[in-house]
Design a protein that fits this description.
The complex is a heterotrimer of chains A (595), B (267) and C (241). Chain A contains 17 helices and 2 strands. Chain A is mainly α. Chain B has a 5-stranded mixed sheet. Chain B has a 3-stranded mixed sheet with strand order 4-10-9, covered by helices on one side. In chain B, strands 6-7 form a two-stranded antiparallel ribbon. Chain B is of the alpha+beta class and 267 residues long. Chain B is elongated and about 95 Å long. In chain B, strand 1 (122-129) and strand 2 (132-137) form a beta hairpin. Chain B starts with a helix and ends with a helix. Chain C has helices at residues 2-22, 56-59; strands spanning 32-42, 73-74, 78-79, 83-88, 100-105, 108-110, 113-117, 122-126, 132-136, 146-148, 155-157, 163-168, 176-182, 187-189, 195-201, 204-212, 216-224, 229-238. The radius of gyration of chain C is 20 Å and the shape is globular. The chains are: A mainly alpha (595), B alpha+beta (267), C mainly beta (241). Chains in contact: A-B, A-C, B-C. Chains A and C meet through loops of A and strand 10 of C.
């Protein structure tokens, strides 16, 4: 048994005084976690509005959008979205969602708040670095958003920013000037923030566990944040230098990604010797693990929450953790599947295809463990439980189409079509969002001491669950028909018959988006007006439920908890019901058994 | 609530699958020699993935339905055999599926992208640029003039940067915006990008390949039916990406010869 | 009193200036003119037919294919699309307020070359049923690049510095034109017969310059006295490639 003398090494910082120290430049991991989540909330609202504009334009391209001209006189003269403005919206939607929502909320946000509490620590290992991470993320967001307010508008090269389009500057089009530079600077800053954050997560997990909290006894959410931090440490360490090289190509005249002899807008470019494929390799070496940075916390959250409402232990906890580790490892071997038709050696396509298919094995096992956990359970259909069930469903729907895309011979047809858009929105967008929703409904009572409204929560779930299927399932059909993605308009003869289906998707997206207003209302109202939450409203076992709602400044009121068992003790005879809490003292005569 | 979830999920699953099975939206008819391989591989995979999709969703629906049972005294039950059968099942079932798909799929891939082109292929040079494709035939001399980026001038239609003043092989090169090819003859395209990344995608030909600046990428295929199809760019290349289009016109050999002769006379 | 006495002549000058440029008072102002033709010697490149296959909506508008407009010749070795302007000797005048229309129709720029005065308004229209992007490749003036979708309002712009600006549409690579921005108000573009006329020139000594996008510039000194119309002939040397 691994007993860490953790509390001894915790820095003891006193509760801060004054508004600025308490709420703005706070060192408290709980405040920082909430700041991350608030930033993600602003970001997700922005990203969602951008997607509405895109969807409206795709469905009715000649219909002016009222008021849009005021927001962007240059990009939407007469309320009509120009093709370059569409691509800017798309680039910003992708960048905001991937970086500032799917990385920021489930990992940096909830992880910051709950990882230290779940391991029984008073704070993160490096509170000052933790605060720096958040404020760097915030600055990165501001830099990105600033590009909306410059003359030529934001970058238009997509969230993948393929060189040389992203590297050659404004000759390549509007948005490829200052907008693209701001993009690269923003992402470089974001990378630094995440590197610092990942280090902090890893150090906290390894060094600050309380007495009795062995690695094997850590909750699944803690495991997933820890593994995500390890992925992030390697992934962002590659993207950051890639962005710096990109910035140098743009502003210092280097040629890392630009080969010789390019003629752009009638101008022979003064560059030579670079490789466009180098950017793709560096980007996807980050980019594929990033998919798992977005989704693994969701895995952890669902594995953490599902047993609470199933009232039975998660099936195969050790298998689950093994699978998470396997996925993390394999995530570094598959990046080339984004590049099957990129012009890299066709032989390497086969090499990248195999691990891509192999990664479905741990993913399939995890899914089956969840379904197996539901088997014979006594499900309590609370809102967080529903979102966990929804998570499993959309993850399956999104994951299974990976079978097709993982094979180069099929990808030859489906690459860069809406099939891919449907696939990744399900598997990393919607699934991760369902994880975030489940986490919000589950943990908000702990974070603010107030319950969320269940009726509104259920409406939110049903409308969202049906809505996302109406939005993203038809995209697979579009992809099969060869509908190319990243098109501002469908003027090709073979695409015109597909426009009615696009209109259906747009209407579904507007409805699904509107349903999120229910969530927003519920969230804001419950934060201030919700009924008072007890310490352990869900009858859960992990350490965050052993303290008050919300937890005191040092998390456990000066008495670090001692852990006696794993987090998976549901469906047993316990002192308070059918569960035993991790910190509950050992009843006499019962052996201390690992989970 | 559990029953509602099960019913909704079942409806979603059935409707989604039915639209796939009924091929309401489907691939356009294939007109390439290698296409049937891809279609076959796609259908095989889709059936396998579809079965897994339906089984998983219905299992989820069924278990949720049953777990909502509120009868007094009902005990929770563990999945038969615990996690072990799941692991074994996943490794065996998914593993076998992967092996099969990889073997067959790699063969299909190799037959298209790793096989050298037929030596009798008709070679056509392709220049992709913001936001158009141009195709170059060597002309009566059978030789391509060399390309000089600094000579590219679109105002005079010199899309390939040819130097007819000094390079006699360039004078008879035929440059057109429509890929005109004979049916049932192997075609070898050499792909050049003038400015940024582009891609060559013809759904009917079941072929997609990026253009990468600085690289010359060979791409070969054989069209098996005459007709006209759209070539679209699938790699984001800038504001006109959505409008980067050309046509491929597949003709009978005699029509093609006549077309080529007519073009050569215009040079 | 003093202020008003200065205002009256100032207003008169302004009004007269505006009228002069509008051509109404041109005859009354007792000005001369320069007219003539622009031709070439040597072998010009062949005008190449433009295949608009990628934009079927435009291709359908041209029963016979249009040809490249970089070098357009006419009968008697006439050279079209040559900008003829007063490069020296002009007294200078404020920019005309009258807008110049530049149209995109059938995936062609109409006209191919437009001569503008510094700060003269330029109104760019899209008369096609498809999008275009207008990309003036300016080096002295600020460069810009903007799409104009079908039905979008016209783009109103102007250039503050004299410059020969190539303009292109990236979506339709064959679409090439020129915005020739000049300090003088006296400029014109040769017609299909190579002919041109510069009017409204007060007596004086002028340098007339002709500019062609491929063949460079040619200049001649011309002295105008009274209301005479001087005829000049400008010749460019053409090369086939």
């Amino acid at each position: 048994m691994h007993d860490t003398a953790a509390p001894a090494v915790v820095h003891h910082h006193a509760p801060p005084q004054g508004f600025l120290r308490k709420h703005v430049f706070s060192l408290d991991h709980k405040v920082i976690g909430k700041q991350y989540l608030d930033l993600a909330l602003v970001a997700v609202c922005t990203g969602m509005v951008l997607s509405w504009l895109m969807r409206l334009h795709l469905a009715w391209p000649t219909q002016p959008i009222p008021g849009l001209e005021k927001l962007s006189p240059n990009g939407a003269a007469g309320g009509l979205i120009t093709p370059e403005y569409y691509l800017s919206l798309m680039t910003m939607h992708g960048t905001i969602m991937v970086f500032f929502v799917l990385t920021t909320a489930p990992f940096a946000g909830f992880g910051n708040y709950f990882l230290p509490i779940q391991v029984g620590a008073q704070d993160m290992a490096f509170p000052r670095i933790n605060m720096t991470s958040f404020w760097l993320t915030f600055v990165a967001f501001l830099v990105l958003i600033a590009s909306f307010f410059i003359h030529d508008g934001p970058a238009l090269s997509g969230w993948t920013a393929y060189a040389p389009l992203s590297a050659v500057g404004k000759d390549a089009g509007p948005g490829q000037g200052l907008g693209q530079t701001l993009w690269a600077v923003s992402i470089a800053i974001f990378c630094i923030a995440q590197l610092l954050g990942s280090l902090n997560f890893i150090a906290t997990t390894l060094d600050l566990r309380t007495k009795g909290m062995s690695l094997a006894r850590m909750p699944f959410s803690t495991w997933s944040w820890f593994i995500t931090a390890v992925i992030g440490l390697i992934a962002f360490a590659v993207l950051m230098p890639a962005c710096i090289l990109l910035i140098l190509d743009r502003v210092a005249g280097t040629s890392f990604f630009i080969p010789a002899g390019l003629v752009i807008s009638d101008r022979l470019q003064p560059h030579a010797g670079g490789s466009p494929l180098l950017w793709q390799h560096l980007f996807w070496f980050f980019g594929h693990p990033e998919v798992y940075i977005a989704i693994l916390p969701g895995f952890g959250i669902v594995s953490h929450i599902l047993p609470v409402f199933a009232r039975k232990p998660l099936l195969g906890p050790r298998v689950l953790i093994g699978c998470l580790i396997a996925i993390a490892f394999l995530s570094y071997t598959v990046w080339g599947h984004h590049m099957f038709v990129s012009g890299m050696n066709p032989f390497s396509a086969v090499l990248f295809s195999v691990p891509t298919l192999v990664i479905t094995i741990p993913a399939a096992i995890v899914t089956m463990l969840w379904i197996g956990t539901i088997y014979g359970a006594k499900l309590r259909f609370t809102t967080p439980a529903l979102f966990c069930l929804g998570f499993v469903s959309v993850f399956v729907s999104g994951g299974i189409s990976g079978f097709l895309l993982a094979q180069p011979s099929i990808d030859t047809y489906l690459h860069a079509t809406y099939f891919v858009v449907g696939h990744f929105h399900f598997v990393m967008g919607v699934a991760a969002m369902f994880g975030i929703f489940a986490a919000t409904y589950f943990w908000l009572p702990k974070m603010f001491g107030r319950m969320m409204n269940e009726t509104l929560g259920k409406w939110h779930f049903w409308l969202t669950f049906i809505g996302v299927y109406c939005v993203f399932m038809p995209m697979h059909y579009l992809g099969l028909a060869g509908n190319v993605r990243r098109y501002a308009e469908f003027t090709d003869d073979y695409l015109k018959p597909l426009i009615p289906l696009h209109r259906f998707i747009t209407i579904a997206a507007l409805f699904t988006g509107a349903a999120q207003l229910i969530f927003l209302f519920n969230l804001i109202r419950s934060r201030f007006r919700g009924p008072k939450a007890p310490d352990n409203p869900w009858e859960a076992t992990s350490l965050e439920w052993s303290t008050t709602s919300p937890p005191p400044f040092d998390n456990f009121g000066g008495r670090p908890p001692v852990v006696h068992r794993g987090p998976n003790e549901y469906g047993v005879q316990g002192p308070a019901g059918d569960y035993v809490m991790q910190a509950a003292p050992e009843p006499a005569g019962r052996a201390d058994q690992p989970c | 609530m559990g029953k509602l979830f099960a019913i909704v999920l079942t409806i979603i699953t059935v409707v989604s699958t039915a639209i796939f099975v009924m091929r309401v939206w489907w691939l356009p008819a294939d007109v390439s020699a290698h296409g049937p391989w891809i279609d076959h591989q796609l259908v095989e995979t889709m059936v396998a993935a579809g079965v897994l999709f339906v089984l998983s969703q219905l299992a989820l629906a069924l278990f949720v339905w049953k777990s909502g049972d509120r009868r007094e005294g009902r005990k929770i039950t563990v999945f038969p055999g615990g996690a072990v059968p799941i692991v074994v099942l996943a490794i065996v079932l998914v593993g076998a599926e992967i092996l099969a798909l990889t073997f067959v799929g790699s063969k299909v891939w190799a037959s298209i992208y790793q096989t050298p082109p037929d030596p009798n292929s008709l070679q056509i040079d392709v220049q992709a640029e913001q936001f158009a494709f141009y195709f170059r035939y060597p002309g009566p001399d059978g030789r391509f003039g060399s390309s000089h980026p600094e000579l590219i001038n679109e105002a005079t239609e010199n899309y390939f940067g040819l130097d007819p003043a000094n390079d006699t092989t360039a004078r008879d090169d035929i440059v057109v915006p429509t890929l005109t090819i004979p049916v049932n003859r192997p075609i070898l395209l050499t792909l050049h990008a003038k400015d940024v990344n582009h891609a060559f995608y013809v759904p009917e030909l079941r072929i997609q390949q990026d253009f990468v600046p600085g690289l010359v990428i060979p791409l070969h295929f054989t069209a098996t039916e005459t007709g006209k199809h759209e070539i679209v760019c699938t790699q984001l290349c800038g504001l006109g990406h959505y409008n980067m289009r050309a046509y491929v016109e597949v003709m009978r050999q005699d029509q093609f010869d006549q077309w080529l002769k007519g073009k050569a006379a215009q040079q | 009193m003093r202020t008003r006495s200065m205002l009256i002549p100032a207003t008169a000058v302004l009004v007269l200036g505006a009228l002069a440029r509008s051509g109404v008072v041109r005859a009354a102002a007792a000005a001369g003119a320069i007219s003539g033709t622009v031709t070439y010697t040597g072998t010009p490149p062949k005008a190449k037919p433009i295949d608009m296959a990628k934009e079927p909506a435009c291709a359908q508008q041209h029963a016979t294919p249009v040809t490249t407009e970089a070098v357009v010749t006419g009968p008697g070795n006439a050279l079209r699309w040559v900008v003829v302007y007063i490069s020296a000797g002009d007294q200078g005048a404020a920019a005309s307020a009258a807008g110049v229309r530049y149209d995109q129709k059938g995936c062609q720029y109409i006209p191919h070359v437009v001569a503008l005065q510094v700060n003269q308004p330029l109104d760019i229209y899209n008369s096609d049923s498809n999008s275009h992007n207008i990309h003036p490749l300016a080096k002295v003036n600020p460069e810009w690049n903007k799409s104009q979708p079908k039905g979008a309002p016209p783009i109103h712009t102007k250039f503050e510095q004299p410059e020969f600006i190539p303009v292109k549409c990236n979506i339709h690579p064959w679409m090439h034109g020129y915005f020739v921005v000049l300090t003088t108000a006296h400029s014109t573009v040769t017609d299909e017969n190579g002919g041109f006329t510069l009017t409204g020139l007060p007596p004086g000594k002028y340098t007339v310059t002709a500019w062609h996008e491929q063949f460079g510039t040619q200049s001649q000194e011309v002295t105008i006295s009274g209301t005479e119309t001087k005829t000049i002939h400008l010749v460019f040397k053409a090369t086939p490639y």
